Amino acid sequence: MDIRIATPDEDEVLVGHYLKIWDSYGTPPERYRPDAAARILSFIRSGRDERRLTSFLAIVDGDIAGSASCQLHQSPFPEVIRPEQRLHGYIWSVYV
Asked: What is the spatial distance between Cα 31 and Cα 19, in angstroms, rounded to a whole number?
C-alpha cells in the first residue's frame, strides 16, 4: 500500500468517500440534503484555502482504497499563543 497526498482533481473521490462513511452508519438516503455533495466539495475547497486542509489517499494495486482528510481547527475563542507554538487540528474523515 502507498499513501500519497490527494490533489484537487481528486476532490470528487473524497466527496464520495465522505458520503460512504455516512452510508456505513445506516443513514437513509432521504436524510441527506439535496446539495450534500456540493456542501462537501465546498467544505474541502474552503478548508484547503483557509485551514490548510490536506487529504491523503491509500493506493493498493493502483486503485484508491481509502482516504483521510485533516485540517486546522478554527478556535472558538481568541488565540493568544503564537501559531508556531500551538496549532489545533483534527481529522474529519477516514474512509477505508
From this structure: 12
The hierarchical CATH code for the domain 2-95 is: 3.40.630.30
Cell numbers found for residue 55: 487529504
- pLDDT tens per residue, range 71-82: 998 888 888 888
3-state DSSP call for residue 24? helix
Sequence spans of domains, the chain: 2-95
3-class secondary structure for 27-79?
Answer: CCHHHCCCCHHHHHHHHHHHHHHHCCCEEEEEEECCEEEEEEEEEECCCCCCC
